[in-house]
Amino acid sequence: MKAIVFDAIGSPRDVLYMDDLPIPRIGDGEVLVRMVSASINPGDFLFIQDLYPEPKKPHFPRQVAGNHGAGIVEAVGADVLLEPGTLVASAIMAAGPSTRPFPPNG
Description:
Blueprint: E1 2-6, H1 12-15, E2 17-20, E3 31-38, H2 42-48, E4 63-64, E5 68-76, E6 87-93, E7 96-101
Antiparallel strand pairs: 1-2, 1-4, 3-5, 5-6, 6-7
């Protein structure tokens, strides 16, 4: 899969690059989402420059940049109520990931 990543703290202009990463393997209680849209927010720039407070800190090498997006569930692990094909939006915050399905009619 393609992803925008970084290997060092710094200005996004200097440290971001596109790379190929393996498709993540999912476990129980997890979903695999094919991202179809991702935004760039001021918080993303803070994260890339390591200005976010703990526990939201980059992990190198090839830390994926970006915290928000929308996509389609591709696969689900055990104990997941979402089904493949569900549209979802995600936000990775300091407390951890959260995913909420879009309502079916909007």
